[in-house]
């Protein structure tokens, strides 16, 4: 690297860019293989009903142990998956795996488990035109009734696909599926989306929750988001709750659900099953 510094800035840039591109292509190759070879896993993070003080459900989160590099965070490989199109089969694999898992739990622990399964959907799913059909097929194949499922999308969907996205959301709701607006507050023109999207739940991004005890401004924002959502008939999940004090504040403001390390980290299926058994 030091030698390169003597050359033009352009070359320094180009060398860095080349390394980055190579890394991405390697990652894409490995990820494709991981999908083919079933090397991905789904973890489940408990979502806690703050009012009833009981388990409300889980968020399914993809996990990948890279054969050489070990555990790799989704925030690293989801972007690569989105840019390469691999996110379509990846999300669908996670969805089918998680729906199948909930079906297993229902057959083992009782068909009326009062649990909602949250699954993330990339905004890229909204471009292909067959999202609704593939989701319907997955429900059919696994046998999971739609009302057990809540799909998490981000407000980015409106920027990427301005026109069609609301129609797709409505079609998903026709399948009895609920919708959740993820990472709320990190995108743009959030408030207008909140009114126009047919969502059941809003997830307050963890960045707001983490600043709750330090910043008056964030306290006001979070409190306002909760009240506004409730006025619109939308319930609220706070993500990234790590401390008792954050939980206390959110409960005081009637936040409906909580998720975060304070309750539990994402767990493998066996760990999640323990939570269901405990109630
Ligand atoms: P997300 O959907 O907002 O998921 C919540 C993330 O916050 C998860 O990170 C979770 O492990 C983490 N988290 C939960 N509680 C806490 C806490 O108390 N403190 C902190 N600091 N973090 C907490 P994870 O699993 O690394 O996933 C990161 C993002 O990757 C997700 O954010 C989601 O956008 C994306 N992702 C994960 N799985 C999938 C998937 O199957 N499909 C798609 N399209 N995206 C996924
Ligand atoms: Mg999510
Ligand atoms: Mg989130
Ligand atoms: Mg988030």
From TrEMBL:
Organism superkingdom: Bacteria
Domain EAL: 24-279
Name listed for the protein in its UniProt record: Diguanylate cyclase
Organism of this sequence: Prochlorothrix hollandica PCC 9006 = CALU 1027
Residues of the full protein shown: 565 to 843 of 843
